[in-house]
Amino acid sequence: MKITVVAPSCTLKREAAEAVEAIVAERGDCELAIHPQCFLSDGHFAGPDEARLAALREVMADPSVDGVWFARGGYGSNRIAEATLADLPDAARGKLYMGYSDAGFLLAGMYKAGLDVAWGPMPQDALREGGEGAVGRALDWLVKRDPSALEPQLNGPAMAFNLTVLSNLLGTSLEPDFAGIELLIEDVSEHLYAIDRSMFHLTSTPAIRKVRQLRLGRVGDILPNDVEFGIDETAIVADWCARWGIHFGGSADIGHDARNRVVPFGGTKS
Amino acid sequence: MKITVVAPSCTLKREAAEAVEAIVAERGDCELAIHPQCFLSDGHFAGPDEARLAALREVMADPSVDGVWFARGGYGSNRIAEATLADLPDAARGKLYMGYSDAGFLLAGMYKAGLDVAWGPMPQDALREGGEGAVGRALDWLVKRDPSALEPQLNGPAMAFNLTVLSNLLGTSLEPDFAGIELLIEDVSEHLYAIDRSMFHLTSTPAIRKVRQLRLGRVGDILPNDVEFGIDETAIVADWCARWGIHFGGSADIGHDARNRVVPFGGTKS
Assuming Cys at both sites, which of A95, A97, A102, B104 could form a disulfide with A73, CB separation 3.0 to 4.6 Å? Predict the structure, then answer.
């Protein structure tokens, strides 16, 4: 079982890489390779688009790699997502791709292209308080499909997204088919008015109204409004779902934190 | 010539209302009514959705009103935009609707519905340094279609939007037809990575690729990145346009500032 880490968005911190290597060594149930591209830096990104794309394509085409683990979020995977999916090598199939946050652009496009993807913790999460648990959960799913790593209320085909990322891929070539899906969303470091605006965009998009139900993960580090927004994130999401007849299923155990759990796209197929 | 101010987004400041009333009194070329709804407050908004919608619909249905002037941006016009456009009263036609920023949700949907709309300064701009000039420019267009108020390089059918607002209305029922349009965009108080992400969303939307050309207004109050993004907003926009074969026409004289100029949607028809 070989897992390779690549960074389609921002640069992986060395301390996070070392912490994950230590966790893997202690487990002894898989081989971990951290691609040197993870440590490149070019402005905001883990190297220029060409370098991030080349590393990802290299790992996708490598038949010895069983799991492709996105190093961290931030921003930037959208810049290479369409090129990532062009002329897929045979070896790209039969692997599991895992990440969350900005990696959602890739998860969406890859799932649409028939690849096996899952929302789940990433190596950079090792730096969070309690991050060892998050990393362990990701590895439990990557290595042995341990159901204890899963978001506990999953029931049928599902997807999970950062709300802002999802809003920004609607209508693009990356947009997957949401029909019959349980859609889990979360967000971080946004104003409540921006959460409301993204929910407007989401639920005003006809394709989204085909979801089976929608659940809300944690919305972390909400930025202050100059005037109090008036209602909280749960009420915002419930309100937009009610307006459009989307079933709101309550809370989901995902978020930008160490408790974040795994959501395999399309269901666990087990 | 009667102009009525309503506030589909946030509450108008009393001082702005008074400043605009003084400007109008001095000009003596129009009658200004500031709808009492402009001063309502309900959390983030200028009154609940129902009150904002009712005021706007009331003014749209009033045959004595020649110009409907949106008080200010902020956030919230999207929440009432679809209901605003249902079963349009006859009197809604033959008026000019003006605003910018968050009002773009309404401008888009109204233009799509065949109403006469223009991007332009709003009453709250009276509080900016140099705001009297902005308010005067808006009135010059509302009252007498003075071409000196216009964005100076307009050439054929055009539209103008706040980039983040435009990204959030793509794919919704408010989205107008961009074919052959000169599209002017601007933004304010965003991180450069978010500008890049919105430009990804914009240019990855097939309908946007039909524009005749795209020009960039001012991007104000850019929020700091923890790592320098690496390229500026002009390079970001030029890059995304180049990727998708959209003609980038350079700068536009619009923005969240006192210099903001008027852009009639679809051209000046003069």
Answer: A102
